[in-house]
Design a protein that fits this description.
The protein is an alpha+beta fold and 428 residues long. It folds into three domains: 2-152, Beta-Lactamase (2-Layer Sandwich); 186-258; 268-427, Reverse transcriptase/Diguanylate cyclase domain (Alpha-Beta Plaits). The protein has ten helices and eleven strands. It has helices at 2-62, 66-77, 130-182, 199-258, 268-285, 299-306, 308-325, 349-365, 393-409, 424-427; strands at 82-89, 94-99, 106-115, 118-128, 289-296, 331-336, 339-345, 368-370, 373-375, 379-385, 415-417. A five-stranded mixed beta sheet has the order 6-7-5-10-11, sandwiched between helices. Helix 1 (2-62) runs antiparallel to helix 3. The longest helix has 61 residues, at 2-62.
Length: 428
Amino acid sequence: MASKRGLGVKLVGYVAAGVVLTSTAIGIGRVHTEHAHLSELLRQSGQSIANTAAAGAASLVAGYDYGNLEILANNVAQQAGVVHVVIRNASGRIVTQMEKRTDVPFHHFQAAIVFDKKNIGEVGVDLSSEAEDEAVTALYLRIFIEQLIFAGILGLILFVITSRGIVAPIYKLTETMETATAKGAPYVAEALPVNSDDEIGRLITVFNKLNRALADYYAQLQGKVQAADQALKDKNIELVARTEELEHTLELLGSMATTDWLTKLPNRRQFDETFDRLAHQAERFGEPLTLVLFDIDHFKHINDNYGHAAGDEVLHQIGNLIQDIVRKADLPARLGGDEFAALLYHTEEPQAEVFMRQLIDKIKDHAFNYNGARIPVTISAGAAEYGGANTSPQALYFAADRALYTAKRCGRDQYALYSALTDSKEAL
């Protein structure tokens, strides 16, 4: 609305200025013409009075009839606008005069008194200019009113014509663009109507062409954006899949680095790292820690008689069995081959003895089958508690290994405690 109001105000100003200048010029011309015409009429009227008075006074002056001359002068003075009448003889002497007013401006008219083709005197008539001034004032007022009405009608016509032909199309164009801008639209949805072939019409035509080109470009751009978005979504999906695959691979690699692939138990590396930490913790806080080592009796015989695949299956099932009986705080592990370990935290040798007995019985009672063949499996185990001479991971491992060796030497399918060894050689 601001643009329309501003353009409308300018238009009103331009129209008003043009109308005022036009009306003023026309008014001045009319005043000059009519004033001149009015002045000519007054001059003719005054001269006519003077001529008539001179004609009437001719015989009276010639006959020296001063009484009638006075009556004549009085009659002339009674006419409208006459303020002074004077009659002179041939020698210029005033024969008679009649004066009504001396305080008003006047126009002086003279006429010669001619009798028998001889100039025998002169008549002077002073005609008041008040009538002329009143007539001029009335003339000015009338012309002013007429020009004012003319200016109003002319201004209204010009305003309506220019407003409809110039302001309205420009406002419509501006309003359409502002509406589209306010809505955030990149272009105008519909083409504007073209109602003329002038500059305004050509302006709207050019606008429609530019708007249509912008709409086409925007549609192409939207297509490219949508294609790019879809491509980006596809890439994101692919990236997510690759990321998940990579995470799975890293997780698998991490698991392979710390987990035995066959039994799913921690491997030797993981066992050694955790062993050092738990040994340090047990020594610092004075908490009991017992290491249990065990291996499968005659595992080579199983591989030779039933095949390595059967041996792998036995290892796998033993891994499951040991996970069934260990606690969350304990650390079971496959150290390599058929050798296993269980690090029992917060556990002394008597509790470790219970654990080994349970584990030996569970494995002996378990039905190991491969390809329909029953495979008898037993284990031998040895345990040593952290403390005393076993105050390092290496010493504790050596002690548990000595106990395991004792159990195997004593016939297998049994366990031994390092603390129960009485042979000094075995205790070394």
